[in-house]
Amino acid sequence: MARHARYDRKTALEKAVGLFWEKGYHGSSMKQIEQALDMRPGSIYATFGSKDGLFSEALATYAEQGGKELAVHLKGYDSIVDGLQDYLRGIACSCGNQNATPARACMIVKTLLESKNTHAELAQQADSILAAIEHSIADLVEQARVKGELVQSADSRRIARLIQAQIMGLRSMGERLLDPQAMKDLGDDMAAILDGYRTQH
Prior knowledge:
Blueprint (H helix, E strand, L loop, with lengths): L1 H22 L6 H8 L3 H8 L2 H24 L5 H16 L11 H9 L4 H27 L9 H19 L5 H14 L8
Helix pairs in contact: 1-2, 1-4, 3-4, 4-7, 5-8, 5-9, 6-7, 7-8, 8-9
């Protein structure tokens, strides 16, 4: 029984991520949440405590999924820098797909912007997640520097912020529904910025 409950919780969170990613915290009514999760109000409150509790877990789930996706992506590359560059290009191409759903912009960034002046706890969670992502990227960049892929003077934290800004920017630009080629070009241009930090062989 416990195993079945965990599976239901995971499924509910995946559905919640889709709803909140598309509509945001304030744009998602309890009726919409009930319909998306296919759960009665009492079950939702019993499982997650509140709408805030559900959203908080959904946001953490979204961040965890993103981290896993990047890790799996990088396993296909001998070069960390090559992997990061192609990751940026991949985001640009997916954002250029006008049939992509749900919303293209990063759920974490959307939460930070939406909740900054209305829901301090959610804004703080979003900011903490972004800080953790920056730290993880900085670790990857430092590994690349140690491997000799980047110049020894490279500032891992500074480059990590640059990469994170590029990711946030690409996903935000995706909301403009630009031409797919324009998004591809933008992804190539952003990826090329990292070439300035590569070692010359």
